[in-house]
Structure formats: C-alpha cells, structure tokens
Amino acid sequence: MHYRASERHPKSDSLMEESSIELTTMKTREAASPPKVVVVGGTGHGKSSVINTVMGEDKCAVGVTWAVDKTITSEVQEVDFTGQDGRIIFIDTPSLKTLQSNARFQNLYKNGFQAIVIVYSIKAFTQSRPSVLELVNNLFGDGLKDYALVVLTFEDYLEDATLQEFLNTNKELKDFLQKTGVEAVTMCNTAEKNSPKATEQRDSFFSHLDVILKRNVSPLSKKTPKISVRRVLCIAGVVFTVVIVISIVIHFSV
Ligand SMILES: Nc1nc2c(ncn2[C@@H]2O[C@H](COP(=O)(O)OP(=O)(O)O)[C@@H](O)[C@H]2O)c(=O)[nH]1
Ligand SMILES: [Mg+2]
C-alpha cells in the first residue's frame, strides 16, 4: 500500500488485486486517527519543500533562509494530506534548535507520532555545531531506529556523483545510517511537479514511509513503553538493593 497524491495518481486496477488483509489494514487506519509524520531538519535544508513535493502541491511556505539562523516556518504546522490510500498529517517544523522548548512540539511528542522524516541537504551549506544529526539524536534517541526516514534534499547538487560517493565524503551521515539502519532517499524539490521525476520521487518516498507506518502500530511518544520499562527496572533495582541492605542489617543485629 502506498500513499500517493490522489489527483496525480488515479486509482489503478492493480489496487483491486491487493489482498483483503491489506484492505482491512487500510480501513483500520482510516477509522483510527490518521498517522502523524513529523518532518525535521536544519534550517533551509528543504523541510517545507519536501512536504510540498510529496503532496504534489504547495501547502507550506518555503524560502531562502540559510544566511542566518531563522526560518520561514516559525511554528510547528500541521498539514492534512489525503492521498489515494488515506490521510496523513505532515508536521512541518521550524529550526531543530528551538524544538526542544517548543510547546506545540512538546505536546505533539507527548501524544505521539508514527514517523520521523529527517531532511538533510546534500548541498550542506550550514555546517553548524551541534549538527543536524546530533540534534536529531538528542531529540529522538532510540526512536530513530524504527521511526525515521532520511530524505536527502538538493539531489540536483549531486550532479554526476552517486549517493554512495556522497556518503563516502560525509562520514557522520554514513555512520548514522549504518548505526541506526535508517533508510535514505534522495529528492530534488525543484523538479517540475507533473514530471516523471517528481512521480518517481513521490512513489519512492511513500513506499519507504509505508514500511515505517506499517511497522509502528504504536506511536513514538515521550511516554513510550521503552522509557517506562527503563523506569520500572530502575525502581526495581533500587527496591532490591534496599531489601538486601535491610536483610543484611537485620541479619547482623540479631
Ligand atoms: N536546488 C534545490 N533547491 C531546494 C531544494 N529543496 C529546497 N530548496 C530551496 O531551499 C530553500 C529553503 O527551502 P525550505 O523548504 O524553505 O527549507 P526549510 O527551512 O527546511 O523548510 C528554498 O529556496 C527552496 O526552494 C532542492 O532539492 N534543490
Ligand atoms: Mg520551512
């Protein structure tokens, strides 16, 4: 099952051939609230442009903003998208550095989301510290492994180079992808929206996103079981130690 812009990808006969299990999954997802896909990355790396590209229409404001650390997108903004196979809420975000203290983002993280799209520019005009990947690691930690997809924007800047060649020049990104197992797709946001290239990019994006959405039945949130389990183990460890200490004290005092 793939999410595609409905107006550009009319339902094909092949959809009828999809298994009933797939259709059931789709209906279940339709009945539940639509998956939330949070789009993060450095200022000017093309976050808003990616949302426009995959939706096939300009819903988010984009701008030339790399000169200083400010962004056209100044708030967390939800964009409702209805593709051929259902709804998705894309969440456009401002600078990564401001997210940690952003009330809307905190609320979003508390309620949870189903996927993270990390937008990373091949042009890489901003080599600031902490880097985009460091900030993303700080925000999502272990969650990245199951929930993230990297979109490498400014594919046009690759020119004749291959993605592998680019990764060989970018150790931090290469290590990040290897360590987390997160997939990466390339994207040129300046491609004409009706062109075969744009269609190919959208299809590739949605097929990767769909794998993540199918994998993650429960949303990633600040209240994930992983954190709770860790807390429970921590409390159990403290209780166990206290019991042992009390037992030893009682043993030697009688
Ligand atoms: N050449 C090229 N320009 C891009 C690409 N993606 C975004 N841009 C341009 O980069 C600038 C910043 O994009 P924007 O989406 O506003 O970045 P954001 O701050 O991360 O949301 C805009 O002028 C876009 O037109 C791309 O793939 N190729
Ligand atoms: Mg933006």
TrEMBL record:
Swiss-Prot/TrEMBL keywords: GTP-binding, Membrane, Nucleotide-binding, Transmembrane, Transmembrane helix
Start and end residues of each AIG1-type G domain: 32-230
GO terms of molecular function: GTP binding
Record field: transmembrane: 232-252
Keyword Cell wall biogenesis/degradation: no
Family listed: Belongs to the TRAFAC class TrmE-Era-EngA-EngB-Septin-like GTPase superfamily. AIG1/Toc34/Toc159-like paraseptin GTPase family. IAN subfamily.
Protein name: AIG1-type G domain-containing protein
Organism: Magallana gigas (Pacific oyster)
